[in-house]
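Dissemination and training. As part of the outreach component of the grant, students in the summer workshop were shown how a complex can be specified as a set of sequence lines and then modelled as a single object. The example used during the hands-on session is reproduced here so that future cohorts can follow it. Participants entered these lines:
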Amino acid sequence: MTTTSTDHRIAPDAAGSGGLRLDGVTLTLGDGDSAVTALDHVGLGVAPGEFVAVVGPSGSGKSSLLAVAGGLQQPTSGTVHIAGTELTALSDKERTAARRRHIGFVFQQSNLLASLTVREQLLLPLHIDGRLGAAARTRADELIEAVGLTHRAGSRPHQLSGGERQRVGLARALMTSPAVLLVDEPTSALDRVRSAEAVQLIAEQTHERGTATIMVTHDTAIMDAADRVHEMVDGRLS
Ligand SMILES: Nc1ncnc2c1ncn2[C@@H]1O[C@H](COP(=O)(O)OP(=O)(O)O)[C@@H](O)[C@H]1O
Ligand SMILES: [Mg+2]
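and obtained this result:
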């Protein structure tokens, strides 16, 4: 899906109640002579159900973009709205709550807990929220199957390959059907077939559940699954 608005970076319906929108976002890291402009006046809108890919070389600001979009890092200037709320106007505590409720992250490192099985990794966030019922268990098993790990459901991280751990991280992020899904280099440890499957799963969840999804990657082979592709160079978005 491409948009016809004058500013092609902002999808017309992303400004409404759902979705994700960044306006004039600048992020400066470090200070003095070592200051780096990681994001330079970035504007981006992602509507519910839209899958946006951002490609760019290492160091261009892709991970910074996701950190700011997901409220992990406050921008130096500019605003972020998710699901109609200005994330950047919230207190730290409110922002953490909004992140847990509305945002799913898939980090480059899967950040799994060593002592938990694959199935337990998926159930933990709902357990903490007191929402662990039969529906959650069914969804966990469906997602474990969707990432091809049914035979691994009882395994712990040290028993898994890097690619398997990456697929657990993806399944875990989808457990809560977040309004906004932010995915950082999801296929770096996967072969071509597994990469295509992982990206297909992200696209399906985005379209079926009306998720606003940003996936950053430097893998041009997986960009076709996205509705739009933007390029990031030196903190600026094409
Ligand atoms: N904590 C930090 N302090 C200072 N500079 C940083 C920090 N994190 C990232 N950077 C710099 O910000 C720029 C963008 O980094 P990053 O968003 O990680 O890019 P990418 O994900 O595209 O590789 C790079 O120049 C990087 O060196
Ligand atoms: Mg990165």
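Strands lie at 20-29, 36-46, 51-55, 77-82, 85-86, 103-106, 180-184, 212-217, 228-233, 236-237. Students were then asked to discuss how this feature might be tested experimentally.
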